[in-house]
Each structure stands twice: as structure tokens, then as C-alpha cells.
Amino acid sequence: xxxxxxxxxxxxxxxxxxxxxxxxxxxxxxxxxxxxxxxxxxxxxxxxxxxxxxxxxxxxxxxxxxxxxxxxxxxxxxxxxxxxxxxxxxxxxxxxxxxxxxxxxxxxxxxxxxxxxxxxxxxxxxxxxxxxxxxxxxxxxxxxxxxxxxxxxxxxxxxxxxxxxxxxxxxxxxxxxxxxxxxxxxxxxxxxxxxxxxxxxxxxxxxxxxxxxxxxxxxxxxxxxxxxxxxxxxxxxxxxxxxxxxxxxxxxxxxxxxxxxxxxxxxxxxxxxxxxxxxxxxxxxxxxxxxxxxxxxxxxxxxxxxxxxxxxxxxxxxxxxxxxxxxxxxxxxxxxxxxxxxxxxxxxxxxxxxxxxxxxxxxxxxxxxxxxxxxxxxxxxxxxxxxxxxxxxxxxxxxxxxxxxxxxxxxxxxxxxxxxxxxxxxxxxxxxxxxxxxxxxxxxxxxxxxxxxxxxxxxxxxxxxxxxxxxxxxxxxxxxxxxxxxx
Length: 487
Ligand code: NAD
Prior knowledge:
Blueprint lengths: L8 E3 L2 E3 L6 E5 L6 E6 L3 H19 L3 H17 L1 H12 L3 H7 L1 H18 L4 E4 L2 E9 L2 E5 L5 H14 L3 E5 L7 H11 L7 E3 L7 H5 L6 E5 L2 H12 L4 E5 L5 E4 L5 H13 L11 E5 L3 H13 L19 H16 L3 E4 L17 E4 L6 H4 L6 E7 L2 H9 L6 E5 L3 H10 L4 E4 L18 E2 L6 H4 L2 E8 L9
Nicotinamide-adenine-dinucleotide binds next to α8 and α9.
């Protein structure tokens, strides 16, 4: 088994196994090959992980942000030095092509460690509030033990995006990766130890929807950050609310990408393709409802079809491959069912729609697919597909398209392509979403806040904004004179 870790879990600085946990296999999506055999965490493992985090956290919180940050920056350096090895593991874990993982996965995790490692010393300061003779001051204090729960599309990035702001703020974390992609987070845990992180501060335990609630409901856990679907978000937020825990919810979307007639069409087509086919369409912020103004519809579709049919599908370990398999068979089947619904409800299939030829039978591949003439009420225009399926919808005018773009329960992201600068800002101002792009799509550098509104979640990852979600404000009133009491 070519990606077998030393054990299923990483707790208190070391690999730990508990064979009493439900066994599960990790599969390479390109071939169906079993690459690792693991066990889900038992309640005893959950206890052990939370206890290790709780034990380690106070001493860590007592260190200066600069000292904590130095360790994170060292971890960033190690990740960059091992980029090839980590990217190959990410490709095995997810099936995403090495062409992507080598530039987008460990590197974005490293960016996160580097950014938070550097910014913490300046961004965790409190305030001094003058009150005449008296004064008050505020401190940003860590929450304590935080739980991170990940989705399967960016396993290493998600682990780092949660670990970096949590750790640098003085918290400890127990992280549970998705059961579909259990491997990457274990390596991150190993690297953090190598970089000098004291043991117990970043623990990884395996498991699925039965394990997650044990972490969320644990009385020693003060915060939960979930990346996952909206239905899971509702359950996790409800469970956390039972004990009034802090939550960050990075959930799903059905984001609009609007192409006006005056847009640079090549860029708009490129943006729409990146925003639908990158990572085989398994990106939460994808612009899956592509609204194209009627005057450029035919030209847009012609260019889109030609470029989509040139996408290289194949072995994810081949540097030339641009589109790998879906993460799992159930996910592929779900996407195929949506494609069938698109056909049945009358959308026009422009290209794709099937399993490609010449791929391993046990691989979970699917062609990049474009539907045109999609209407707002069709299932494929309303529900998150989470696969390489682009829906193209027509529109006439600005007010109309904004109203239609906003007519969804989701609010993760949105994009607009236009060469009219005032229209660009007017439109993004009226779109209901947490992260928006003008004349590009899906760029998420660590410096900018990322997250959703409406049913797509709350809280923000990345940027200094994330630190607020891993700290509490403590206010101290200082009296400089005698207490004047009326009794
Ligand atoms: P999912 O909701 O099925 O699972 C997410 C994680 O939650 C997994 O680790 C799972 O084991 C765990 N889980 C499931 N039920 C739980 C429960 N009751 N309590 C605690 N944990 C539980 O999502 P997925 O299929 O792994 O990922 C795809 C979804 O994630 C899509 O909807 C996508 O849009 C979303 N996503 C969002 C972002 C973002 O940043 N907004 C990023 C990536 C993915």
C-alpha cells in the first residue's frame, strides 16, 4: 500500500492506532487501488486527543505570538521543501492532477503558516481605552481547544487554513479530515512537530459523520470550524449551539458568474472554466451559474466548447493531465445523476456529459460538461453539484441578472466580467456573497478574507480577520482612585 501512514491518528506528538475503531480503506480515485488501511477513532481516541490538546494549550498560550509564529514559519519552509512529496500524496488522496497540487495545495498551506506566523505579532494586540483618570484595556485571548473538521477537496489546505490561525492565536487543535481523504493532515501534523511545535497542540484523528459529533459535543472543546456541505453545517452549528460554542462555517454554494457583452471574452471563458473544472469541479466557491448576456452567448459557447474539448483527462500523476477523477464513486454517481436531470429538464448539452473513454474502469472519471439554455428553475441551476458541470444561463439586462443571481439560498461567492469599471463595482455591491471577483475567478490568496453569507456559512478564513474567530476579547477596567460607594 503505497501511502500507508504509520498509524491512523496523530495524538500528542506521535502516531497512535486503536484497532477497535471501524476499519476503512483509502482509495486512489484514479484507479480504485487501496493505498492505505485505517481505523476510525473510537470514543477513547477522541478523549485522548482532546485531553492532549487541553494539557498542551496553556503553556503554548503563555508564549509570545512571535515565538509561536516562528514555529509556523518553519513549518511553511518544510512544506515548501517537501512540496513534491506532499503534492504526490495530495494527488493520491484526492485524485487531483499533480499539475494542480504542485502549485495549489501544500503551497497554499505553507502560505497560511507563513502569513499567520508573520502577522500574529502585530495582529493579536489589544486596545487601550482612556476613561479620564481611569482606563481600560482589551486583550485577545485564545479560546482553548478548537476542533477543525475538513471536506475532501483540499485536505492539506483546509488543515492548514484552520491550524494556522488557531495555533498562532494560542489555541490547540484536534483536526478530523474527511473520511475520503484521510492522509494529508497526518503529514501536516508530523511537519508541525518537526518545526518545533510542542506535542499535543495539533492532533489528527480519523472518522466520519459518526466521529464528528463526538468532537463537536465534547465539553472541553470551545470552538468548531467546519468545511463541508450546508446540511452538515446545520447539524454541526446546532450541536455547537447546545453548548454555546464558537463556530466557523465554510459551506457550499451555487455561485453566479456574470459575463456582460463588453467583457474580454477570452478571459471570461478562461475564468468560467477555472471556476467550474479546476479540481474536477470540486471547489465550494465555483461559479457554477454562468450568466451570459444574450449578445455574446453564441460566441461564448463556441469558444467554451472548443476549449473544454481540449482539456487533457488522464493519469493524475502525469504532469500533462489537466482533469483527474472525482474523489469517489458515490460523488461521481451523484454528478452523473445531475447530468441526467439536466437533460431530462430540457437543458442543451453543449459538451461532455459522460464517462470518458480510455480511463481505468475503477477510476471515477467524468467528462467536463457544459449545459446551455439552463433556466433558473432547473435542478442543475439550483442545487450544488460539486463536479465539473457548468450551467450557462442567458440574460438581457443588469437589474434582471442581479435579481436572478441573488435568488438562491447560498451566498458564498460571485464574479463579474465586464470592461465597464463603474458597472463592475455597482454589480458586486448588489450581489449577495462573501467573496467576489471582478474580471477573474476563484483566486483566494491568504491575505484576503474568505467565507460565505446566507446559507453558505459565517466566519472568515485567511487574512487577519480569521484571528478574530480564534480569539475572545477580554476587557479589563482599571480604577486609579478610591471606590466611591453610596453605602
Ligand atoms: P460533508 O458535509 O459531507 O462532510 C464534511 C466533513 O464533516 C467531513 O469530515 C465529515 O466526516 C464531517 N461530518 C459529517 N457529518 C457530521 C456531523 N454530523 N458532525 C460533525 N462532522 C460531520 O462535505 P464533503 O462532501 O466532505 O465536502 C463537500 C462540501 O464541502 C461541499 O458542499 C462544498 O461546497 C463544501 N466546501 C466548502 C468550502 C468552503 O470553504 N466554503 C470548501 C470546501 C468544500
